[in-house]
Structure formats: structure tokens, C-alpha cells
Specification:
CATH class of the domain at 1-67 in chain B: Mainly Alpha
Helix content of chain A: 40-55%
Number of helices of chain A: 9
Strand content of chain B: 5-15%
CATH topology of the domain at 1-67 in chain B: 434 Repressor (Amino-terminal Domain)
Strand content of chain A: 5-15%
CATH topology of chain A: Rossmann fold
Oligomer: heterodimer
CATH class of chain A: Alpha Beta
Radius of gyration of chain B: 24 Å
Strand order of the largest sheet of chain A: 3-2-1-4
Mean pLDDT of chain A: 92
Largest interface: A-B, 47 and 40 residues
CATH architecture of chain A: 3-Layer(aba) Sandwich
CATH superfamily of chain A: 5'-nuclease
Largest sheet of chain B: 4 strands, mixed
Chain lengths: 172, 366
């Protein structure tokens, strides 16, 4: 059985895994779900890289790519004020809406301050995980991940979102 | 939600046919048609793709808020309607993003631009336009060579949103209820042309409530008044007369070569300066036409003046975006979109260990 069964990936970690050349190994050890919009973003973002091409359509057998209904996105976004809505991109919105709607205990791996802050704001900090933590647990540890993929980074920005929540900022 | 209706409005507002939208989005035109007619519900990824293509926020399709018509004031509007609509949509998107950044950084500023005390457009004549320019010149503290500080003052003191894009036409201006005053200039135009357009559009912004919201066609006169305003604003009487006096030859004349130097200093075309001098020194029309002909020949004979390429986005906009990114208020992907750069390029702006808002790097001055 794979170590992670309910794992959502944002575009940053996908690109990082491709950069590190461990995407295929990663998929052997984790069940990964990705929103269709994030998959599109990762494909777009990889165009700038010389040595990687990300086309998740080729991994349809191994990756669960989901696409939510607009009504679900709307009910998720209606919870936020203008400030939080403006800060995150469509793919991040789709992933977060999916996570918040599901009864499963999904874990979201990102490399983004704004995404972790939203989770903190929503009181779902425990449903986040850094790439560093996943790689350590599945035996693929790397020392050159970059600060945004560390546990320290994740915890720091989840905490910032929690502070916003306490101070009644961000939600309508 | 009226997703279908909103999809159609968004497509039409950028001037795309179903086929063009299909080509840009990679979604079949029959699917697009079904979405627009509410015969089939699009998935979120369809909406996010179409939001990108139509240059709208994803929320545009998910809201029930009433739609507002965005009439914009053009200078040299292209005949091609599709091109004009695309430019207007891009301009709107940039203004919307700018306002988002201001909200994210809690830096929404109230603009207090001077307004004309003439409220009846029929009473606005050239003398009034020039008087108004003089008042603005004094109020903005524009000094001897106004163009040197005009743009900076408009952006940093009065929070006018000024963007540059490559498009057909010269300029667009608009005083938005939601975003405040904004000007779009053509990045492809020569520097001195853009300077003139900026001053010209400023007149429209400052007299928005005088000339807009009326059902009469005043555009031709209004444009002439805007030209008179721009001319006076960029070439103040005292400064121009002073430069002319310094350059007179023994016969009390000034050469076109010398005038060209003055035009360069004030960042205007030689033609514009000749017109201004004709007005200041009351030169007859036929003589003015003769000087203008000579000025054209001179322009052909001279090596063209260098013209710098403007930055597409205002400095304040970029600064707000970078601060929002580093304070975790803007995701990296959203930052790349706002700055119109690649994801890889966006990563270079990330600062993790340094927090410049922290008291550690604040300078105590109290």
C-alpha cells in the first residue's frame, strides 16, 4: 500500500519533482490527485524550462485528475472576501474547493505562502504537508528543495493564516 | 448563476467569434455554443481556460452581480472593432489587477485630482483650456519642464493608473468608479508622441464630469480643447519664451535647428513646438504653415531622436505585486499572471529569509 493515498499537489511541487527527476518514483509511492486547472498550469509553466516538459495527460493511468463543478467553486469562493479571492490563482482555487468539499482527509502539498495561508485561515492547517515531509516519509529525501518546500515554510504560513482567522480577516 | 450569458458577454466584449474563442482556448466551438446557451454546464477547468482567454477573473462567471457597461474614451480608435475590443479588455484587466493589488496591500488611495470649475461644456473654449492647464501646472508643481515630472506625479501623488500596451490607436482614458482614473498609452509610439498623448488624456480625465454623461457629440471640440490643454501644459509660456529669448540671433529670429533642440528638451515634436510658438508670438497662419513645411523637411534630414521603450506596467503596480508575493498575499502563479511573466521568471522574485516589513529592518525616525 502506498504511503500517501489522499494527496493533492499544487503546480509548484509538480514542477519541482520533474526538475529533480523523481516524478515517476514519486508516483510509485504516492496516490496523487491534481486538479485539471493545476495540470494545465504545470504544463504552461514547464514551457519555460529547457529540460522538462510536463504533460499530465500522459499520466492519466497513474494520476487522478479531477475537475469540479462551477457551483462547488462558487460556494467555496463565496466564503472569502475580495482580498483572499484576488490572491490565489484558478488552479489553487479549484484544489482548495475540492479539499474543503471532500469528507476524506486529503493532504495538500504546495510551495506557496498564499495557499498555506488560506488553509490556515480555514482552520485546515493539519491538511497541509510540505514536499520535504513527503519525500522524507517515502524515502526520497533531497537536500536541494528550496525553502518553499520545507516544513518550516509550511508551518510559518499556515500560522499567518491562523492569525488572520483569529483577527477576522479574509472571510466574509 | 448565469454562466452561459456571462460567457457570451465575455467573449463578445473581447470581440471574439465562437471560432476564434475555440482556437484560443482549445475548447470546441460546439461546446462553447452549448455552454453559452446553458445547454451544457462547463467544468471549472473550462471556465478557468476561458477566463484566461477572455481576460476575466474566474469569479466573473460565478457571480450574480449586475454587469456594468464600460464605455472608454479613445484617441485614434482603430477601425477594426475586434482589435479595439481586445485592447479595451486588456486595459480593463490591468486596471482590475492594479486595484486588486491595492486591496491586497491595503493601499487603496483616494485620488484628489483638480477639477475644472467650468461645468458647462459649451463654455469651455481654448482660452479656458489653457487657463486650466496653467492651474494644473501650478497645482502639480510641474516646474520649468513639465514632462520631466508629469507622469511620476500623476502616478505617485494622484494615483492615476498609467499603462503602455502595443495596440492600434493612440490612447484610451477612463475614470472608473471602481478603479479610479486610468490612461492607456501606445508603447509603439515615439516618446514625444506618448508625452503629448498623456497630457491630452489628462484633460479628458480632469474634465470627465464636464463632458461625459451627456448625450451630445462633443468629441471633436473636446479633442481640440484637449490639444490646447496639452500644448499649454507641456510647453509653459514662460519657459518657452525664455528658451526662445536665449536662442535668438542678431535679427531677432530663431532657427529651426535651435527649435528642434528646445522641442527635444520639452519632449514634444517640432511640429507641436511650432504651433505653440505661433500661438505665443501671434504668427500668421500662412507663415506657420510655411514653418511647419520646413520643420517636416528638417525632420526628414535629421537622424531620428532616440525614443525609449516604456515599461508596460507602472512601477507602483510592480512594487505592490512584489510586496504582495513576499507577504504571502499573492500566490506565485497569480503573481506571474499579474506581472505577465513566466512561472520560472516569477520565482526570481521570491524572498523567503528576508522580511523587509519586519521591525529588524525598519528605520526609527520618530
Amino acid at each position: 500500500m502506498k504511503k500517501f493515498q489522499f494527496l493533492l499537489l499544487d503546480a509548484g511541487p509538480i514542477i519541482k519533482l520533474f526538475e529533480l527527476g523523481i516524478w515517476d518514483e514519486f508516483l510509485e509511492r504516492c496516490d496523487v490527485s491534481i486538479s485539471q486547472t493545476v495540470a494545465n498550469q504545470a504544463k504552461w509553466a514547464s514551457q519555460e524550462y529547457k529540460d522538462i516538459r510536463i504533460d499530465l495527460e500522459l499520466y492519466k493511468e497513474k494520476v487522478n485528475i479531477f475537475d469540479i463543478d462551477p457551483s462547488l467553486a462558487k460556494s467555496f469562493l463565496d466564503r472569502f472576501n475580495e482580498l483572499y479571492k484576488a490572491g490565489i490563482h484558478a488552479g489553487e482555487k479549484e484544489t482548495l474547493a475540492f479539499l474543503c468539499d471532500s469528507s476524506e482527509n486529503w493532504l495538500l502539498c504546495s510551495g506557496d505562502k498564499a495557499v498555506y495561508q488560506v488553509l490556515g485561515l480555514l482552520g485546515k492547517g493539519e491538511q497541509s504537508i510540505s514536499l520535504e515531509e513527503i519525500l522524507d516519509k517515502i524515502g526520497l529525501s533531497k537536500s536541494n528543495l528550496g525553502p518553499q518546500y520545507t516544513k518550516v515554510f509550511r508551518e510559518r504560513w499556515i500560522h499567518k493564516g491562523q492569525i488572520d482567522s483569529i483577527q477576522n480577516r479574509g472571510l466574509d | 448563476m448565469e454562466i452561459g450569458k456571462r460567457l457570451k458577454i465575455a467573449r463578445e466584449s473581447i470581440g471574439y467569434t465562437l471560432d476564434k474563442a475555440s482556437q484560443e482556448s482549445g475548447i470546441g466551438s460546439s461546446s462553447l455554443c452549448e455552454f453559452e446557451k446553458d445547454r451544457r454546464e462547463p467544468k471549472f477547468s473550462h471556465l478557468s481556460k476561458l477566463a484566461e482567454v477572455y481576460k476575466k477573473k474566474i469569479e466573473f462567471f460565478l457571480t450574480d452581480e449586475p454587469l456594468i457597461e464600460n464605455l472608454m474614451l479613445w484617441r485614434d480608435k482603430p477601425d477594426n472593432e475586434e482589435e479595439a475590443k481586445k485592447t479595451e479588455t486588456e486595459f480593463y484587466q490591468l486596471c482590475e489587477q492594479y486595484r486588486d493589488l491595492e486591496i491586497l496591500m491595503d493601499d487603496v488611495k483616494e485620488y484628489k485630482l483638480p477639477v475644472s470649475n467650468i461645468t458647462d461644456p459649451a463654455k469651455f473654449d481654448y482660452d479656458q483650456a489653457e487657463l486650466f492647464a496653467k492651474h494644473v501646472h501650478e497645482r502639480f508643481l510641474l516646474g520649468d519642464v513639465p514632462i520631466a515630472s508629469l507622469k511620476k506625479i500623476l502616478e505617485e501623488v494622484y494615483y492615476v493608473k498609467i499603462f503602455y500596451l502595443d495596440f492600434s490607436g493612440s490612447a484610451i482614458s477612463k475614470v472608473w468608479e471602481k478603479f479610479g482614473p486610468a490612461i492607456l498609452l501606445n508603447a509603439k509610439n515615439k516618446q514625444w508622441r506618448r508625452s503629448y498623448d498623456l497630457a491630452h488624456e489628462l484633460f479628458h480625465i480632469l474634465t470627465w464630469n464636464v463632458f461625459r454623461n451627456r448625450n451630445i457629440d462633443e468629441s471633436k471640440d473636446e479633442d481640440k480643447l484637449a490639444n490646447a490643454f496639452a500644448s499649454r501644459l507641456l510647453m509653459p509660456e514662460e519657459s518657452i519664451k525664455d528658451r526662445v529669448r536665449q536662442s535668438l540671433n542678431s535679427k531677432g529670429q530663431i532657427s529651426l535647428d535651435r527649435l528642434d533642440d528646445i522641442a527635444r528638451e520639452f519632449d514634444v515634436s517640432l511640429d507641436a513646438l511650432v504651433y505653440r510658438i505661433a500661438r505665443l508670438f501671434k504668427i500668421r497662419k500662412e507663415d506657420t504653415d510655411r514653418y511647419l513645411d520646413a520643420a517636416k523637411k528638417l525632420a526628414q534630414a535629421h537622424k531620428p531622436r532616440p525614443s525609449y521603450e516604456p515599461a508596460r506596467l507602472p512601477e507602483r503596480y510592480c512594487d505592490l505585486a512584489q510586496r504582495a508575493l513576499n507577504e504571502g498575499k499573492l500566490s506565485l502563479m497569480q503573481f506571474a499572471k499579474y506581472m505577465d511573466i513566466s512561472y520560472k521568471e516569477a520565482q526570481k522574485y521570491l524572498i523567503e529569509d528576508e522580511d523587509f516589513t519586519d521591525e529588524k529592518v525598519s528605520i526609527p525616525v520618530a
